[in-house]
Amino acid sequence: MSAGQPGAGGPVDVAPRPLAVAHRGDPYRFRENTLPSVAAALAAGADAVEVDVQLTRDGVPVLLHDPTLKRLWGLDRPVRALTAEKLAAQRFADGQRVPALAEALGLLADHPDARLMIDLDEPAPATAAWRAVSEAGAEDRVLFCGPAAAMFAVRELAPEVPLALTWKQPGVPVAALLADLRPRYLNPPFGLVDRALVERAADAGLAVSTWTVDRRSTMRRMRAAGVASLTSNRIGLLRSVLGPVGGH
User: How many Cα atoms sit within 13 Å of 111 on the Cβ side?
Assistant: First the structure.
């Protein structure tokens, strides 16, 4: 497929270098999915910051990967057991707290070229997440990633928002799925990615994004394979491997 030829996901983006995506912020410096972590990743030159979203008891989207607060925050309670107000009032040992998605969107104001990549593991948070994006006027500052069911929920709400279809199987999804969902990116873990997959994805109208790439050698290998986007816990290292913002 020639560059720009439309496929199931529309024109394939051709960039001088892959996008550098920070995984849950800058988690080697600050606790993942917190405002300091997101802010640090943006300051380090991330093209996008991937954040995870869960819902509180009253349906407010907040930044959290797990359904409970135990692993990250040491509190053995489901996030859905707490209202947004009670969760916001909860301060932990380092003074941090679980932020709302709306607060993370607000950090984009000082970084006009960056985006949030909102990762949804299930369909349930899609409506509230898109409402937060719309209320922030950030429709053109986000993309969504996740498995097919979650991405279909987003697509129904937002026909044009860029989607990255998380895909944990070898090869490329069937054409019928791609035609219905219209993702921009195929989003497999890096262990499934090689140049052959990138070329097959391109034939289907897709660019390839991949995760979670933390070693310099793997970053270079993924870039050589032709991926369009790399997600890493080590945004500073990734930025140094890919070159400065705007570089070639």
Answer: 23
